[in-house]
Specification:
F-box/WD repeat-containing protein 2-like, 33% helix, WD40_repeat_CS, alpha+beta, WD repeat, 308 residues, repeat, 9 helices, F-box_dom
Length: 308
């Protein structure tokens, strides 16, 4: 058939086809398909894919794409990022989606950071760390060998780890090398805290002691508790030491003099944690920068002013 005749025939067929009902159009297409060979079927398949499969993320306005993405879970979104560069670009640019994903993991969100890629990276790092924790691959482990009895007390600071043991000793370790820096004879240690010059220990013998690292000498001995001392903290700036005990009390001591300044009571269980720290927010009783004492037993946390 000549090209001109074919075009005339095609126009007539098209007009007739458009006048048919949907059912008649379907029957016509079925008949034409049955008459088609491999070349025609391949042509039909290639063109149908283009007509039927729409890339909505590419075609929709960005605001609508972001709205739809909010309904997908993060794992599905990460899978979608693998479809093509365009999908990855759109999904990675949705700040709200990745901020929400981080928030659901317990992350504290800084709303001033609106870089979507930043929050996506934060989410991916968090997921990786959780997977490592689950598979016991998050940390390298090593053993510090030296004590001859139970190690009950630990305190870590600036790459150094202090251990207190029932073998009547405390040791200071360099965590990176595993080497023991100092080892001194003490009492049984239930709590330890240290700095460059000294070590403070709370003991099952109901006392608190201060030791000098360089000589191993005991420089102060704080007596007054009637139960084991499970927690200690101190401040050189305030020259005070605090201790929490199994006698349901917290004691405040003069660090340099070794005298008891105050005994805080009202607890119904062992006091297992005491912390001295600067207040960071304003309240009715404290201003930012004021030192406060926090203490905890099994059921409650108490906040005490230090007057400093």
């Amino acid at each position: 058939m000549e090209r001109k005749d074919f075009e005339t025939w095609l126009d007539n067929i098209s007009v007739t086809f458009l006048s048919l009902t949907d059912l008649q159009k379907n029957e016509t297409l079925d008949h034409l398909i049955s008459l088609s060979g491999a070349v025609q079927l391949r042509h039909l398949s290639n063109n149908l894919e283009t007509l039927l499969k729409r890339d909505f993320l590419k075609l929709l306005p960005l605001e609508l794409s972001f709205y739809l993405l909010k309904w997908l879970d993060p794992q599905t979104l990460l899978t979608c990022c693998l479809v093509c560069k365009q999908w990855n670009k759109v999904i990675s640019a949705c700040t709200e989606v990745w901020q929400t994903a981080c928030k659901n993991l317990g992350w504290q969100i800084d709303d001033s950071v609106q870089d979507a890629l930043h929050w996506k990276k934060v989410y991916l790092k968090a997921i990786l760390r959780m997977k490592q924790l689950e598979d016991h691959e998050a940390f390298e482990t090593s053993s510090l060998i030296g004590h001859s009895a139970r190690v009950y007390a630990l305190y870590y600071r600036d790459g150094l780890l202090c251990t207190g043991s029932d073998d009547l000793s405390a040791k200071l370790w360099d965590v990176s090398t595993g080497q023991c820096v100092y080892g001194i004879q003490t009492h049984t240690c239930a709590a330890v805290k240290f700095d460059e010059q000294k070590l403070v220990t709370g003991s099952f013998d109901n006392t608190v002691a201060c030791w000098e690292w360089s000589s191993g000498a005991r420089t102060q001995h704080f007596r007054g508790h009637t139960g084991a001392v499970f927690s200690v903290d101190y401040s050189d700036e305030l020259d005070i030491l605090v201790s929490g005990s199994a006698d349901f009390a917290v004691k405040v001591w003069a660090l340099s003099a070794g005298t008891c300044l105050n005994t805080l009571t009202g607890y119904t269980e062992w006091v297992t944690k005491v912390v001295l720290q600067k207040c960071k927010v304003k309240s009715l009783l404290h201003s930012p920068g004021d030192y406060i004492l926090l203490s905890a037993d099994k059921y409650e946390i108490k906040i005490w002013p230090t007057g400093r």
